[in-house]
Amino acid sequence: MWHLPRQLAWFGVGGFIGFIVDAGIVQLLVSKLSADPYVGRLFSFVCAATATWIFNRRFTFHLRGDYGLFGEWSRYIVAMCAGFAINYTAYALAVHYSEFVRAWPSVGVAIGSVPGSAANFLGARHWVFSGSRGASAKASAKPPKHRP
Asked: If we measure between CA atoms, which residue out of 47, 54, 86 comes closest to residue 73?
């Protein structure tokens, strides 16, 4: 439990990186490529979630299951979908009701970021990076110690 504050701090740093990726990509897609802000946000989410997965697996969470890179990444994307659903709802409402946010969708990304963060942290900590599968596999692979 002592490492929870450290994990929260690092998760916040990773979240900030994810926000920069998410907001930057959706803003680029909407303002430069005339993409629909709702569709563009789906693409920017996958990019941001991938960026935060890379950061969080290196700095935030050190325990890992035995899923392999693609398995861990896909579990992470699924876990982030709960927070993204909350985030996207706030984003979509802001885009729908605000001409300013429609022109600057990165503001909508910021509005949606806060409420989805808790769900994302819990999913990452307790499902993706719990280490339970890897820890149990390592524990069962160790031979018993013999005492003379």
From this structure: 54
Q: What is the pTM of this model?
A: 0.81
Supply 81's token pair. 């979908």
Question: CA geometry: angle at 12 spanning 109 and 130, to 5°?
Answer: 110
Least confident residue range of 4-13, 90-99, 112-121, 128-137: 128-137
Cα separation of 121 and 99, whole Å? 31
What pLDDT sits at residue 4? 87
* DSSP letter string, 3-59: THHHHHHHHHHHHHHHHHHHHHHHHHHHHHH---HHHHHHHHHHHHHHHHHHHIIII
Contact in structure between 56 and 120 (CB atoms under 8 Å): no
Residues of the chain with pLDDT > 70, as a percent, come to 86
What are the boundaries of each domain within the chain? 8-133
Number of neighbouring beta carbons within 10 Å of residue 125 = 19
Number of other CB atoms surrounding residue 132 within 10 Å = 12
